[in-house]
């Protein structure tokens, strides 16, 4: 099975592109979705996060409260990552679909070293002004949170230099055609 890492900075189009792979029948593991499972009531992150961030956890993890904690103290994000990233890695290791190709949608693929477990990496990217407009259009997103998250991500230019494949997510139909071409390329050159 070819393991294709899918990454890109915040708002560059990972989820949208991952959905196109899924629609084409390719199994997708999604790191952000894994975090949602871990934060839900009964999820494996709930207990450890209750101990570290008591105000941000009730039955499950309250993301708004977590963001408030990070906004008040940026070192909180480092502590949060120390708890969450090993649990995310365990969830990813448990994903073993029977398929020729599988996609791993991981925002922090390079930052966490997860690229080492991939056969190839697809970077999704877009011009900075488009990225910014997309992210700031989200409810609850602020300039400050955008800056905090961006500062913890490898710059887009560095990701471009390291990726095997690059798609500019300017327009949906063009992206879909590139996704389909990449699936054909990867599965015929394995
Ligand atoms: C900071 C939190 C509370 C924000 O929650 P929110 O629902 O607003 O955003 P969401 O989880 O959908 O993430 C949106 C995007 O933010 C970026 N992002 C999230 N966490 C991080 C991080 N630790 N470092 C850099 N960028 C990040 C990614 O591009 C991600 O796709 C949440 O992202 C979180 O708990 N992050 C820690 C876990 C983590 O590192 N997740 C990244 C994937 S493993
Ligand atoms: N190929 C595309 N064509 C047009 N718009 C796109 C395309 N890809 C993504 N978008 C738009 O950009 C925004 C961000 O896309 P998406 O949520 O897929 O990004 P992401 O990289 O998963 O973001 P995050 O890092 O925050 O999880 C959405 O509004 C989406 O509709």
From TrEMBL:
GO terms for cellular component: cytoplasm. Its EC number is 2.7.1.24. Transmembrane segments: none annotated. GO terms for molecular function: ATP binding; dephospho-CoA kinase activity. It catalyses: 3'-dephospho-CoA + ATP = ADP + CoA + H(+). It is an enzyme of class 2 (transferase). InterPro entries: Depp_CoAkinase, P-loop_NTPase. Keywords: ATP-binding, Coenzyme A biosynthesis, Cytoplasm, Kinase, Nucleotide-binding, Transferase. It is found in: Cytoplasm. GO terms for biological process: coenzyme A biosynthetic process. The keyword Metal-binding does not apply. Pathway: Cofactor biosynthesis; coenzyme A biosynthesis; CoA from (R)-pantothenate: step 5/5. ATP binds at residues 11-16. Catalyzes the phosphorylation of the 3'-hydroxyl group of dephosphocoenzyme A to form coenzyme A. Belongs to the CoaE family. NCBIfam families: dephospho-CoA kinase. This is Dephospho-CoA kinase. The gene is coaE.
